[in-house]
Amino acid sequence: MFQWSNLIIVALTQKCNMNCKYCYLGDKSSLPDTEMSFATYKVLINQIALDKVQFFKEKGKISKFQVLLHGGEPTLISKNKFERFLEYGTKVFSAYGLPFEFSVQTNGINLDRDLLQIFKDYNVHLGISIDGCTNNLRDAPVDQKLIINHLNLAKEMDVKFGTVSVFTSLDDKNFLDEILAYNGWMCIKVNKMEEYYNNGLTPSPAHYFNNIFLPSFKDYISGSKSRIYSDLERIIDGFLIDVATSHSYNTQSTCKFKFCGAGTKLISIMPSGLMHICDHWRGDETFYNEKVHQVGTFDFLTLQQFRASLRWIQKLNPLIKEKGCDNCIYSIICLHECPLSNIKLNGKWALDKRDCELTKMIYDYLWEHLEDLLEGVSKRKNNIISTTDFSIYKLHKRFQLSKYKISKINRNSIKIEKGAEHV
């Protein structure tokens, strides 16, 4: 029995109250304003529960999973319907004793005290978008102060939330300071915007390296609690595992900036019930699975997703071979990026050379500043580097730094300490 998905993205609606230029869906004005019916939602929740229960019976344990209620803009559905969805899911999962969490990704515009109270009652974790140069990224101006007021209200009501920001070529060196000034009490997750349609917003490798990677690296090695989180932290962890150990590489992910459906980390369900291995493919049948209603018992998050992932990998592997990625020293942190940007832009299944350039810049910089990196990690309260992407065989001397001791903790973790040279 496979256990592929601990993140299930549920698009409650395709309605949207902003047409963000950076969105991977492109122009959303042409999308139908459909909402997921309660009947489809019930089938979905019951399938998730059955799949998790079956896995528990076979393996004796189950990790916490997250159901992310998404859109469009999910807060455009009625409050009564939202509460009904949360109530039903909580009732079913709790009845089976499953470890779950509901989360909601929103632009924050429609949050008010009544809706936040619903989220608090059901222990929902909010992800709220705050973007730099906001009014350059949308068709209509956005009252950023209104969103900040809603964040302050969420904090006052003790609702769990985090923020996410998209970085584009319109953002300058003050981007992170600007975002943190809005929301200095919270850690910020920064995502790179990929050019899914021809909007010309994709930052150049040098622009991204200087304005996102370097500040993120300095934050990573600061020794204090991080203010900034980006998936670049996962790249740095992978780099440390690479230089310190012999390992096997066991991920199928094709994207270095986020967990990916092709890596069987998530699954996405449209309002109609159509399932995808990647949220970015919604509306495209190239890599869809089945409709929720058509999937057999215990086959919901497992074999259907596995089959769709195989179709993805079968298309990707020849491309990787052609480009020589398997023999590239940088591939350990590259993960080959996402070919979707080229598919969306020009219909060609290809890898973007700009991502290759950025990967090399990051890897070379990490090597040049390896001692700074180890020093920073050794000072952190949690100086254990863990990853699910590698199975560590043993430590090895890939570098000579007598000040640091690197110990193997388990098959996926190492510990970095100040001390004698490791053996």
Describe this structure in words.
The protein is globular. The longest helix has 22 residues, at 38-59. The protein is an alpha/beta fold and 423 residues long. It contains twelve helices and 15 strands. Helix content is 37%, strand content 18%. The chain starts with 6 loop residues before the first strand and ends in a 5-residue tail after the last strand. The chain has a ten-stranded mixed β-sheet. Strands 12-15-14 form a three-stranded antiparallel β-sheet. A two-stranded antiparallel ribbon has the order 8-13. Strand 3 (100-106), helix 3 and strand 4 (125-129) form a beta-alpha-beta unit. The protein has helices spanning 38-59, 79-95, 113-121, 144-156, 175-182, 205-220, 232-244, 303-323, 331-334, 340-346, 353-368, 370-379; strands at residues 7-11, 65-70, 100-106, 125-129, 161-167, 188-192, 228-230, 245-249, 266-269, 274-276, 288-291, 384-386, 390-395, 404-410, 413-418.
**How far is the N terminus from the C terminus?**
39 Å
Mean pLDDT: 77
* Largest sheet entry: 10 strands, mixed
pLDDT under 50 segments (min length 5)? none
Count of extended strands: 15
The largest sheet has its strands arranged as: 7-6-5-4-3-2-1-9-10-11
Radius of gyration, rounded? 22 Å
- Quaternary form: single chain
Class derived from helix and strand content: alpha/beta
Helix content: 25-40%
Q: Note the overall shape.
A: globular
**In what range is the share of β-strand residues?**
15-25%
Would you list the SSEs in sequence order as H and E?
A: EHEHEHEHEHEHEHEEEEHHHHHEEEE
- Helix count, DSSP H or I runs of 4 or more residues: 12
